[in-house]
Amino acid sequence: MHDKIYPVSDDWAKRAQIDEPTYRAMYQRSVADPDGFWAEQAKRIDWIQPFTKVKNTSFAPDNVSIKWFEDGALNVSANCVDRHLAKRGDQVAILWEGDDPTESRSITYRELSEQVNVFANVLKEMGAKKGDRITIYMPMIPETAFAMLACTRIGAVHSVVFGGFSPDSLAGRIQDCDSKLVITADEGLRAGKKIPLKANVDAALAKLGGDVKTLVVQRTFTDIPMQNGRDVFYGDLAKTVSQHCEPEAMNAEDPLFILYTSGSTGKPKGVLHTTGGYLVYASLTHSKVFDYQDGDIYWCTADVGWVTGHSYIVYGPLSNGATTLMFEGVPTYPTNSRFWEVIDKHQVNIFYTAPTAIRALMQAGDEPVKKTSRASLRLLGSVGEPINPEAWEWYHRVVGDDRCPIVDTWWQTETGGILITPLPGAIGQKPGSATLPFFGVQPAIVDGEGKVLEGVAEGNLIITDSWPGQMRSIYGDHARFMETYFSTYKNAYFTGDGCRRDADGYYWITGRVDDVLNVSGHRMGTAEVESALVAHEHVSEAAVVGYPHDIKGQGIYAYVTLMAGAEASDTLRKELVAWVRTEIGPIASPDLIQFAPGLPKTRSGKIMRRILRKIAEGEFGNLGDTSTLADPAVVDDLVANRQNKR
Ligand code: ATP
Ligand code: MG
Predict the structure, then answer these.
(1) Cβ contacts of residue 251 below 8 Å, gap of 6+?
(2) Which EC number(s) are documented for this chain (predicted)?
(3) How far is residue 32 from each of residues 26, 27, 36, 42, 299, measured CA to CA in Å?
(4) Mean of pLDDT values over 482-489
């Protein structure tokens, strides 16, 4: 991988909250004296009852217990809404851009307060109370944020399920956390198409039976069947309730939300986050990683159904009194210029998206980007998968006009917030590297036996001590929590990701540990081979997996998606093999290349190598859990055009 470095510019070093010496000093302090460091940082949050204890955590096998600020009390909605009213009542809190480019809404902090108070009272009217689990199955509209904040106001635990999930997947998630109320909408709207959310809820509830109620927000006002005694229109109840709802004082360790992981590696896990530590961590990371400053317009393109949407559309930005843009649509509707047009329309300064979107837009070429201004942009971000250096360079050069640093943020649903990332005014960037740990985060690289590797190293990524945003358990299954994350390596949190550390101490995520290739005894991450392929001018996206090979043990099977206009051929196949050979070395040259119009992805856009491996192995009958797949049809094409061993 190329180790080209993009240093912090003088401008950025000056304007940013944190420059390099400050980062080094704060980081040192955060690991030497976590109690002192986090006690200070926690002051950014308003506490109803101040805490006296800061950190009380144990990663001991069979006895994992994680508590932060455990005797403090606070309310999340009071922190995200009420406390901003005096200073920012008229400032826009949520800037909403509809699927249709002519539709947008601006919601000030004052309006947000009114909406959240009423929504909270509606929830109470529906019988919801502190500790209840409430499922939210909604499109990307402001009411979804109101609903989440309303849950936190009354102390209910939300479980947001991405609106693209099927009735089956939804039913499983409602059942897993035993929620008695589902908040949904009549329909969602994406890329001009209607998504029958309420009908999906009906189908899910038909499977479950029992006493689950629904609260229906009207988005399209289409005629939908409502079941008497079970389904209620939000608008009808909202008219009848009081305008004020007192925020519930929650203990710092009371559950805040449950969120199911995206399911790249198997059955999703119900990740449980609690109140105090999560909010402190989401708030601090949002402020420092994006260097958010008063008046900035900030846009994270994730869906609120993912943790990125929780921490970096809703809780991080709103706790910081930011203006957060929420987008209902998709990057390619009505045209490939949509993202950039929205940036110009709302004068967005900070833009945070995923490699899957960047690669898709890169495939369409520079012109749809270049015809927009993007002069307001100052900072770019990436999250969700390793970003191939080629895609990073394109993002930097074409989208950011060589002007904007890129924060490549590595983290997980489980971590609550960003763990490894550049800070834009402090840490120079290398394309493809998540760079250095955030405050309080202690990464280590271990070999298969758990031996900690020092200096330049490659192996498995663990985190050796707790940080406030860490998940506390898997909902209802603490044993599975300990087994999944704390049994592989003693006294450490196991991330499941492979990682390399270079001579500058920078971290490079090499892919999922489960996906590591072993070719003739050489272990290789998937990211490196994929990035070499993507670096070829005709390749827009690539996924590699291993398959059984008589001589090498494992051979390399590469699925390759081409740039618009490029032609699949045997000549190109040979060219790509030779290309990888020179880019990395003969050991990494693909044995088989399949040209694929699309790759199987989770609904959050991550490549599911697990399924690609099965196809490469010829095990079509046993593809595993495919319920989180965005487009099952992609798999049929891949199976039909599988390359045979030659
Ligand atoms: P499941 O745990 O159910 O398999 P998932 O791991 O895809 O699903 P998420 O929590 O959404 O669920 O994703 C976290 C993973 O995404 C990380 O473990 C890592 O593999 C990948 N990831 C996220 N951000 C980055 C990044 N900046 N660089 C490299 N990888 C990243
Ligand atoms: Mg995971």
Answers:
(1) 70, 71, 72, 73, 275, 276
(2) 6.2.1.1
(3) 10, 9, 9, 17, 34
(4) 96
Is the pLDDT at 473 greater than 50? The verdict is yes
Q: Is the Cα dihedral 86, 89, 90, 96 positive or negative?
A: positive
* C-alpha to C-alpha distance for 61 and 298, rounded to whole angstroms: 41
Please name the residue whose Cα sits nearest to atom 28 of ligand 1. Answer: 386
Mapping DSSP to helix (H, G, I), strand (E, B) and coil, where does residue 445 land? Answer: strand
Q: What digits encode the pLDDT tens for the residues 383-421?
A: 999 999 999 999 999 999 999 999 999 999 999 999 999
The pLDDT assigned to 367 comes to 97
**Collapsed DSSP state (helix, strand, coil) of residue 82:** helix
Of 501, 76, 144, nearest to 282 by C-alpha is 76
Among residues 461, 602, 586, the alpha carbon closest in space to that of 520 is found at 586
Beta bridge partners of 274: 255
How buried is 330 (Cβ within 10 angstroms: 0-12 exposed, 13-18 middle, 19+ buried)?
Answer: middle
Q: Is the CB of 497 under 6 A from ligand 1?
A: yes
Of 53-57, 167-171, 310-314, the one with minimum mean pLDDT is: 167-171
What secondary structure does DSSP assign to 228-261, as a single string? Answer: TTTEEEHHHHHTTS-S--PPPPEETTSEEEEEE-
pLDDT of residue 315: 99
Minimum-distance ligand 1 atom for the alpha carbon of 264: 4
ω into residue 334 within 30 of 0, thus cis? yes
The stretch 163-174 carries a mean pLDDT of 93
Dist. CA 279–CA 272, nearest whole Å: 13
Cα(258) to centroid of ligand 1, in Å?
Answer: 17
- Is position 581 annotated in a ligand binding site? yes
Q: What is the DSSP letter of 386?
A: P
Which positions ≥6 away from 635 have C-beta within 8 Å?
600, 611, 615, 623, 626, 629
Q: What is the pLDDT of residues 21-44, one digit of tens each?
A: 999 999 999 999 999 999 999 999
Instruction: Write down the pTM of the prediction.
Output: 0.96
Give the chain's mean pLDDT. 96
Q: At 645, is the pLDDT very low, low, confident or very high (cuts 50, 70, 90)? A: low
Mean pLDDT over residues 80-108, rounded? Answer: 98
> Strands (DSSP E) along 293-335, which ranges?
297-300, 323-327
Q: Which amino acid is present at 451?
A: K
* DSSP track, 599-616: --BBTTS-B-HHHHHHHH
The answer for 624, left when phi > 0, alpha when psi is -120 to 50, beta otherwise, is left
Distance 608 CA to ligand 2 centre (A): 12
What residues pair up with 255 in beta bridges, in sequence order?
274
Q: 494-527 in b/e burial notation, b at 16+ Cβ within 10 A?
A: bbbbbbbbbeeebbbbbbbbebbbebeeeebbbb
Which of 173, 289, 410, 604 gets mutated to test ligand 1 (max ligand atoms within 8 A of its CB)? 410
CB 86 within 8 A of CB 515: no
Q: Give CA torsion, residues 513, 516, 520, 522, to 10 deg.
A: -70
Query: Is residue 437 classed as helix, strand or coil in its secondary structure?
Result: strand
